[in-house]
Structure formats: C-alpha cells, structure tokens
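Ops channel
N.P.: pipeline sanity check, posting one input/output pair.
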C-alpha cells in the first residue's frame, strides 16, 4: 500500500468499498438537489436539461473516484512529506478535473443530440478554471472520505511490552519483563524475586537500592522487607492496628501502616 497506513491490502480494499458506499448516495443526493434547484430557479430550461447535467456529472465523478484513492495511497497525509502530498494531490486533481469535464461534455453532447439539440460547453479557457474550482471541493471530499475509511480500518496501536529487568543471580543474568515480577523480598544481603512462573531467583543487593530501579516497572514498597507488583493484586485483607495483608495469588505479603501511600494505591 505504499505506506498509506498500517492496514493490510485486504483491509485497504474494504476501506475503498466502504468509502464508495458513502460517496455514491451522497453524490446522487447532491445531484438531485442541484437539479431541482435549477428547475425551480430557471423555468426557461427544459426539465430534462438540469437532470442531464447533474446525472452526467455524477456518473463521471463516480467513475473517477479511483484517482483520489490512488493519490491517497501514494501520498497519505501525515505519513508522507508534505511536499510529496501537495504535488501528488495537485497532479491528481488536475487529472480528475480534466477527465471529469471531458466525460460529462461527451455524455451531454450525446444526450442533447438524442433530443435534437446541441450542447454548448462554452470557451474551455474560461470554463475549465471554473469547473476546476468546483472539482477541487469534490476531490477534497472524496479524499477525506477515503482517508476516514482507512483510519477506521487501522489496527489498534499495539500495547508496549512491559519494560525488561535483569536479575543477576550469581553469575547468571535472568532477563524478565516487569509484569513477570510478583514481589521482591529482603533476604539478608540478598533479595528474592517471586516470578509469575514460580521461579525464585536471588540477587545480591539491598531492597532499598532495588526499590528505585523497580519503581518504573510499577513495584511499590509495602513493608520494610517487601516490594509488590499491584498489577497482580488479588485481595486485600485488614490485620488490625492499620496493617493489611496483600494477596498476590498464592503469595501473602504484609502491608505496614507505615506505608499509607501504598495502601491508597492498592485501594484505588
């Protein structure tokens, strides 16, 4: 898809048809309103004339919706440099407008010939800039519709994986994700990690020193000998005198009343 978005080719095709399903009825409705307006304002025209103008314009526009679609695929706003976006869509607009004008003129000439009349588009040098201005609005609306359809097809942003942490267990280094750490307890000159897979690696350090390193991973201090991961909280039980027991699955960790901020966070 040339970097139009993160959608797959299959999703891009669905986005195109979704956009087309919106564009077709709106284009038809605009044509009907315009024709009825001209009939009301200009009773000197034959009734079939405004209908032929709007029908031919709408049919050609619908046959050309692939032009803004391809330009959007080639230079999607926000994903391509703005000079590329501007040049690509300006060129696509000129092609779109030229084919639109050429198409509806040929169709109107055929319709008028069937009615025994002659269609006069006027001076091309004067009329084309006028049509180009109108086509610019149509092109913008088509491109915006397809862009929205594409955005709706984009997959949701992937959640960032939990930060990693290296546990130095003797000569070994055990690399774990932050969300794999259930709790950390002090064990003399060591700390013991309680991991979600049941492992209990030891690391030679102090809990006070480790607390700052594990804070970005979400662990909090609940006791002078415990750090716990609130993401794994399964229960909170009062012990009396302001102390609590924190349940992390099968692990029961103390929560001292000396750590009121930890209690607030767990309650929240």
């Amino acid at each position: 898809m040339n970097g139009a978005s993160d959608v797959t080719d299959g999703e891009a095709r669905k986005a195109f048809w979704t956009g087309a399903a919106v564009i077709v009825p709106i284009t038809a409705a605009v044509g009907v309103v315009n024709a009825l307006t001209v009939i009301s304002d200009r009773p000197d025209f034959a009734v079939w004339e405004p209908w032929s103008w709007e029908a031919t314009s709408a049919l050609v526009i619908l046959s050309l919706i692939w032009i803004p679609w391809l330009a959007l695929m080639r230079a999607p706003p926000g994903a391509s440099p703005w000079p590329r976006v501007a040049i690509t869509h300006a060129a696509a607009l000129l092609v779109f407008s030229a084919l639109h004008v050429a198409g509806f003129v040929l169709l109107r000439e055929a319709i008028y010939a069937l009615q025994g009349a002659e269609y006069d588009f006027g001076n091309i040098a004067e009329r084309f800039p006028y049509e180009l201005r109108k086509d610019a609005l149509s092109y913008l609306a088509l491109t915006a519709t397809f862009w929205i359809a594409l955005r709706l097809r984009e997959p949701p942003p992937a959640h960032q994986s939990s930060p990693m942490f290296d546990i130095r267990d003797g000569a070994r280094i055990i690399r774990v994700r932050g969300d794999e750490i259930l709790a950390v307890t002090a064990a003399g000159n060591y700390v013991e990690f309680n991991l979600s897979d049941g492992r209990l690696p030891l690391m030679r350090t102090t809990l006070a020193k480790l607390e700052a390193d594990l804070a970005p991973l979400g662990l909090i201090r609940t006791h002078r000998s415990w750090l716990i991961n609130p993401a794994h909280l399964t229960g909170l039980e009062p012990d009396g005198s302001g102390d609590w027991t924190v349940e992390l699955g099968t692990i029961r960790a103390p929560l001292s009343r000396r750590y009121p901020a930890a209690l607030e966070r767990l309650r929240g």
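N.P.: looks fine end to end. The longest strand covers residues 181-187.
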